[in-house]
Amino acid sequence: MARPLDPLGFEDEMCPVCKSRKYLNPDIVFVFNPECYHSMCLNCANRLFNDGPNQCPHAGCNKTLRRKGFRSAFFGDLSVEREVDIRRRVAAVFNQKEDDFETLQDYNNYLQMVEDLAFELVNGSDEKRRQAEAQLAAWEAEHRQDIERNKKAGREADEMSRKRLAAERDAARQRRIEAIKEAEEEKRERVRSREMELDNLAKGITTAAEPATKVQLKRRGQRGGITEPAAPNPAAAAVAGMGASEVERLSIRGLKEKPKAPAPQGPYDPFGGMDFAPSRYKLHVGLAHPLMEKYRLDRQHVAGGYSFDDFAARALYEAFAGLGVFVEDEKEVGNGNGLSQAGEMVAAADDPDRMDLD
Amino acid sequence: MASEDARYRETSQFEAWSFSPAQLAAMREKTNVLARQRIAERMLASASNLPTSNNTSKANTPDPSGNGTPNPNENGAPTLPDFLKSEEEALLVSFYVSELLRAADHLGVPDEVRATATVFFRRFFLTNSIMTYPPQEMILVALFVGSKAEGRFPRIIEFQQKFNTKQDILAGEFLLCQGNRFNFEVRHPFRALMGAMMELRSYGDIDEQRIIAAEKRAHEILLFSPLMTDAYFHYTPSQIMFAALSLADRGLAERLIQETFHFVPPTTNNDNTPAQTPLPGSENSGLARKDGGGKGQMTNDERAAIIGTGIRDKVMGTIEACRTMLSNELPERKSHWTSESIFKSQIRPVRKKLTKCRDPDRWNLSELQRQRREQGLRRDDSEERAAASKGSKDAALFGGDLAAGAPEKKRRKVDGNGQEDPFGGPL
């Protein structure tokens, strides 16, 4: 910005390798490698690095560069380009969101910490930069999973919003088409009713007003019905997706400890974990009872899918269920259903007011 | 804990309707004491308020010799009658249970209905005294509700044709359900008996005729003995079934128990080491835990707790106790309950006593229901009247036109009670 205007491009960058300028070669393209951020023209880069890795041609720079790493700059100032690259890298590692923190203060502290790190990476001395680099690497190694998860969540959110936008666009297009169709229909209808009116007049019937209103009503009804259904679904899905994807945990101070419900739960168990496998008996194949035999041939039972094995299972279950339940012991001591409670039961049953107010 | 037992413990039969003998006796005693208090209060109240109610209650009672309320003596102070003791109540309940079984035979209902009705009847008269509600009517109510609870829906007309009563049955329905705490599922030993027979047959070395005979007899016992005793309160259906089987054929019952509780801990058993290898006994006997049953191998301790010899002896003891209880009321005792001489010598005196001390307000079920309805109606009525009087005040304020908009019914009611309405008649 501070540079003076220079319409002819004399002050333009010059390729430090081949010394050509934009003025001489209007098609010149400058590229650089993020290893050292030294720029050169594309021709030089191709020439020097097409045959494999080579040393940076800048005086005093001994980085080894590869052709693959070269790219053209987005910003005119390469130091800005470098800072953006570094910040992008830092942001990819420290990708917590505000929702992940318990208080705003914690979030701000976290941002401050990240900013300090980024600043040191960008502007710090060699020593400091190395230190910050090590910190970043350590953090990344340590929290790889969380980072991945956040990244994925971010991608999903992006995807979701993209889908939502597409759906909205679709819906809008749909509405436009409908509106055009409707207008055409209306026009046609008007012509038709006009003709009918004329016919009726010719025949001498004077009920012209009625069909016209009918048409009008029908149209309104249609319009009310069409626009609703398409729009809300993607939006709702997007919101739901955002809600579900906010799962992460990191050991930064003040990070929310969210109850992580979903993953390992398995299917819902309506019986509350009760075990239905028999423990005292075994269900043999071919358990039979004479009373069952006549039903085996009865078409009404067989056709309905009556399962004789189920009957056998139930009968055996009933034969052994509660065999080890000793009512006297259990009711006297355990279960909290002692004598006093039995007495209450009687009192409750005998309470006349309670009975009367049923 | 065996999974079957855990499942049984979830039933209402275990949760709400299983008691130790001491608890059961205490409950009966308490029911009896409470009933005495209430009936005495009501008798005194009705005698002082409505001396003429004597006639009406006499007309409604089924027994012509009945004398619902105590006779006021010359000073107008009524004398309280002799109340039934709880043992006498128990005797009467047993007698009426035998009547119930006869009624069930008369109706020709299936076994489950018969048993369910009996259990309902017994449960009802556990928390309600036989002096409070009429047992004769409750028998039919129990049969009617019991049929419904077992998934058969008889028409009330059938009952009317067979027993010549309808109103009382319908009036007592809700009462019975209340007395049963709305616990409608009763677990019975009948299907369990079939299961036991299947298991016995699967051993393969028992004579078929022996099994059939044992089942027949055990079924006969199950249809009478547990119902006539308190077995359903004290024992689980499977224990009752084993006891009945043991009465029918002791050998078979013991064989089944031995095969079930076969587990003997290995002699080298270290208490800490779980048995990772399958035990030799469990593979051969075929009674071990079913494979693929979720939790995998159990430790020896667990297995011993479920099918070990220690628990076997305890189960045997319980079954023996149940057997003793059932043997007091073998099916042969049916004639005991129906015999004329027994009835004359034991039942009739108690019944006579009962007719003197029963609850004057609750003896007649239809009457009781009618009163309750009226009570409810009166309550509604007073609410409506309050609303109507508010309406008439509004009408006065706004020039009388509002009253015309009030519902016809409401106005009629206000008319009927015009002299009692503190705000006077409508404008």
TrEMBL record, chain A:
GO biological process assignments: nucleotide-excision repair; regulation of transcription by RNA polymerase II
GO cellular component, one term: transcription factor TFIIH holo complex
MF terms in GO: cyclin-dependent protein serine/threonine kinase activator activity; kinase activity; zinc ion binding
Coiled coil: none
Alphabetic keyword roster: Kinase, Metal-binding, Nucleus, Transferase, Zinc, Zinc-finger
Residue ranges of domain RING-type in the record: 15-57
Protein name: RNA polymerase II transcription factor B subunit 3
Origin species: Pseudoneurospora amorphoporcata
Upper lineage: Eukaryota, Fungi, Dikarya, Ascomycota, Pezizomycotina
From TrEMBL, chain B:
Domain Cyclin-like: 98-178
Biased composition (Basic and acidic residues): 373-393
Keyword list, A-Z: Cyclin
GO MF annotations, alphabetized: cyclin-dependent protein serine/threonine kinase regulator activity
Biased composition (Low complexity): 394-406
Bias (Polar residues): 46-76, 266-276
A Pfam match: Cyclin_C_2
Chain segments carrying region Disordered: 46-81, 264-301, 373-427
InterPro entries, sorted: Cyclin-like_dom (IPR013763), Cyclin-like_sf (IPR036915), Cyclin/Ssn8 (IPR043198), Cyclin_C_2 (IPR031658)
Top-level taxon in the UniProt lineage: Eukaryota
Single GO biological process annotation from the record: regulation of transcription by RNA polymerase II
Family annotation (SMART domains): CYCLIN
Family, as annotated: Belongs to the cyclin family. Cyclin C subfamily.
PANTHER family: CYCLIN
Protein name as it appears in the record: Cyclin-like protein
